[in-house]
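Input for the complex:
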Amino acid sequence: MTLRIIGCGNVDRGDDAAGVLVARRLLALGVESFGAETSEQSGESFSLMDCWIGFEHVILVDAIAPNGTPGVVEVWNAHTAELREDLFPCSTHAFGLREAVELARTMNRLPQLLQIYGIEGKQFSFNTPLSPEVEHAVESVAQQLLELARTMARR
Amino acid sequence: MNKQPSRTIKVDTLARVEGEGALYVKLKGDQVQDVKLKIYEPPRFFEAFLRGRHFSEIPDIVARICGICPIAYQMSAVHAIERALGISIDPSVRLLRRLFYCGEWIESHTLHVYMLHAPDFLGYPDALTMARDHQAIVQQGLRLKKIGNRIVALMGGREIHPVSAAVGGFYKAPSRSALKDLMDELKWALDASLSTARWVSGLDFPNFEQDYEFVSLCHPEEYPFNEGRIVSNRGLNIDASEYEDNFTEQHVQHSNALHSVLRGRGSYMVGPMARFNLNFDKLPAVAQQAARDCGLQAPCRNPFRSIVVRAIELVFACHEALRVIREYEPPAAPRMQACARASTGRAATEAPRGLLYHRYELDQDGLIASAKIVPPTSQNQKRIEEDLWHFVSQVATRPADEITRKCEQAVRNYDPCISCATHFLRLHLERG
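Predicted:
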């Protein structure tokens, strides 16, 4: 099963960079040697839907809205859960990751397996740094996904 | 005595506009008492952020101002800096920049027509709900947007935050064969954009016209992207270097964005309707005919019909992209060398949402001493509020939720990009 890991976000907006940084970290860790591909996306929904075409197993990583516990990671299976609107308001577009998933669900364009990793952010202002909690979560998620890719490659 | 009740319509978060905005309308009976389009995203500080940077860095930095129209920011920046440095670009580079802009217009207009504005006309709360009943339409929109993405990715080096645009040209010019690979899909896109125009022309438009001053670039031979004089339907005809002599920005209490006005005249409209009305004769025959077939005539003064105008500009962008690819010969060098000198350059180009003005003052080492960026949404913002003043009175007797929906639709006529429209305002406070 081909795996694509898509990191979403804006690297200029503090913790909104989380998804993109996970994708970059995975690339640096050599995830492609296990047959997985990485991609960076802004989170704009049409492009996201394009980006997962042709892949059976897709993992989206994005920052989610602050809820008092920065760095906490939540994981959803898109086939079994609808994404909560209040958790994905961070995109500068009104049409973002959540809408991409729900639109694809409506149009039967979800990949065979679509998982969403949400990393809770704290600060999203322009030109702010990554918060320490999110920096830690980025490394943790990258290591988890590397292990997943390694395991899949062994099968 | 019959006392008329007061009603206040508040939309705390405007959906389906880029960025974050809010709308406040106060009514007394069917009389409008107040209208405010509020922008509450924190100021973007971009102009201050650019100071001290080398001119060669600017195209990459300004591309980050907006996720939807990074090409526009790059194009206004490179043209302004090239004017400062006295650089003339290769004709092939000029063609490539038009193709780059075609890609962005296709992306942006498709997103707006299909997913952001169409639900208003079809009576759906959002595109997700609309997609359940109109899957074929949404599929067409997805495919159209994809060809825009492909052009931007090819020209920009990547889909998001494109990196290949440079002062003097591009870091790398595409091969002819790479461009020709786009042609089959672009031919489909041209047909699809024609069917898009037919589809949206059949929507139901409120009967609402205003006496606008339309402002856009105007070029003697072509529908405008990167070059031309700034003109209006009321006699304005200036070079971009005269922009700040003719336009000024005003701070208003309720918004982080500045309101642009024409000095001594007031509000004006930029964007697809302004371009269409001022440049109809520069559209290719296929787009002119499509407009006639849609019952669209210049001047169009109904802002709700801007969805049809955007569809006509989609026809133009697909046709123009095909023309550029057919004519393209790779340049001898992808970019001209740029040598630093103390100077100032100003330029305006046509972002999908309208005129985008940049000014850069460079020192002798090529570092930015000052920058000014006036995005289309801040130019349209006063006009949007004025539209609402007049439009709300037409629907003031309707239920509050209907008024809300209609007002949101009226705001979306302008496809506002609110996160671009907020930028830093220096405030001097005096205490007595």
